[in-house]
Amino acid sequence: MRVEGFGQVADQLRRSTVQVGLGGRGLGSGIIVDQDGAIVTNAHVAGHAPLSVHLWDGSSFPARVQARSTRRDLAVLRIPTTHLTPVTMANSDDVRVGELVIAVGNPFGFVGAVTTGIVHAIGRRPGLGPTRWIQADVQLAPGNSGGPLADARGRVIGVNTLVAGGLGLAVPANAVARLLAGDFAQAPLGVVVQPASVRVEGAERLGLAIIEVVEGGAAEFASLRAGDVLVGVDGRPLRTLDDLEGALESGGERVLRLQFLRDDPSRLRTVSVRLGVPQAAVA
């Protein structure tokens, strides 16, 4: 690609990349996906409220979460404006190792930063469950999360999410398309978690430590709190984060039974959480 052509592609991507913030603090990046105010970002970027979205032209708008899949770490925001310039989404199944890619985001508050690299691998990463990632040697930093990873023609192939083993990991664009189509309907549990190793009944197991409970969410009504460690769902031990998110994505009104540890690591507790209806804890 000619240098001037590459510059045009990068400039267009920058204009379709937004900054997602909380108050005056930037949390990450987002991607304009339609002209009527839909923004795709990471679920962990959209984990706080009230959110705001800052556009390339300097304007800003309040944002609400329209859809979320924490299993794929994706969220769709909606802002009250129109006539935006959306990106073109690619078929991420066509991405090949060795392709030139472009990442745009707002690392450390630097708006519209651009970095380039190549695709190193496509598939799972050890320790991150069965999730499929596009793995590229782009330089990502806090604030890049939720921004676009695009091919040399500027078509978005993924959403930049995290760094592992020195490579940037992006959720493939086809997962974004499924979320936009409503295929990832998920009942909100209302927690922010991080993996933790715990001992349950004498054996080491994966736990998901709750680091934040969202006000008004199902977890709060079930009396879960920060510091609790989730270790099982419906009597089955958690092996990856996908186990929890798969249960949340099963859809409909239902009761989810969560096994967790609190204070005494030798005592396994169980709580039932009602999902898909106005929240209330059940015995």
In a nutshell, what does this entry contain?
By secondary structure, this protein is mainly β. It is built from 4 helices and 19 strands. It folds into 3 domains: 3-78, Thrombin, subunit H; 92-180, Trypsin-like serine proteases (Thrombin, subunit H), CATH 2.40.10.10; 191-282, Roll (Pdz3 Domain), CATH 2.30.42.10.
Unreliable runs, pLDDT <50, ≥5 residues?
278-283
Mean pLDDT: 86
Q: How many individual helices?
A: 4
- Name the CATH architecture of the largest domain: Roll
The Rg value, from CA coordinates, equals 19 Å
Q: What's the CATH C level of the largest domain?
A: Mainly Beta
> Structural class per helix/strand content?
mainly beta
Describe the global form: globular
Our count of domains comes out at 3
In terms of DSSP E residues, the strand content is over 45%
Major sheet description:
7 strands, antiparallel
Instruction: Briefly note the CATH topology name of the largest domain.
Output: Pdz3 Domain
Q: What is the chain-wise order of helices and strands?
A: HEEEEEEEEEEEEHEEHEEHEEE
Give a count of the beta strands, DSSP E runs of length 2 or more: 19
